[in-house]
């Protein structure tokens, strides 16, 4: 067994353990073991000089599960929170992770009330004008979802020709379908909840939307194993953005480089994959 197979086996075991603790199992056909890798294996990032770095003050929010949320005792947890703590351990520095109101997070970084924001902040042009970002640590691809009984696995314009496909109206996902899947029979819904209900009822053959929220839903009691991903992912940045990064003050180049180095090392060591599958046992890729 080569090193790649060993890593995959470890990740599959981690996913199974995480689900067993929740009393759940992984639905078949869900692409559940795939871990995205946003770091070029050929890129060699030199370990930055961290001589002056003793503490990183991370800020996040506390009401966006599974990325960040407060436990009953008030302790913060979630994918973003654990990733921040893993980065501090990798960089061998102390860290704190404190919650802020979502609408104050970037301002807190700009004004130095926190060193880095790890709160699923999209790297939009407007946000880039205010702060600097690390390389993306995840992206938000679009995905098709179908009922488990649907035998069609391909998600190409030809394969989905004349199929009923549901989407939330007036979104980037609807615009993408109109541009690249013009032959589908498109049905628009007002909300994501309405779209999911239509899929479960069989009103549409496929639902198309944000892969992250779909992945969380597929692993929930509301979905109850009804459905699974089909085809994709679709990552066209013009429609779905450039991903999510850790935000730092624009002049804090040393910290940005240190975090980039830490993220790549966590990916190489399999720690990023373990955290990803802990919180997303059904991969959104």
Query: Into which percent range does the helicity of residues fall?
Result: 25-40%
Shape, principal axes of CA atoms: elongated
Beta-strand portion reads 15-25%
- Level-2 CATH architecture of the largest domain: 3-Layer(aba) Sandwich
Order of helices and strands: HEEEEHEHEHEEEHEHEHEHEHH
Average of per-residue pLDDT values:
88
Structural class: alpha/beta
CATH class of the largest domain: Alpha Beta
CATH fold type of the largest domain = D-Maltodextrin-Binding Protein, domain 2
End-to-end Cα distance, whole Å, is 25 Å
Instruction: Kindly provide the radius of gyration, computed on alpha-carbon positions and rounded to a whole number of angstroms.
Output: 20 Å
Number of domains: 2
Helix count equals 10
Q: CATH homologous superfamily of the largest domain? A: Periplasmic binding protein-like II
Report the sheet with the most strands, covering strand number, pairing sense and barrel closure: 5 strands, mixed
The tally of beta strands, per DSSP, is 13
Q: Spans of 5+ residues with little confidence (pLDDT < 50)?
A: 1-32
Biggest sheet: strand arrangement? 5-1-6-13-7
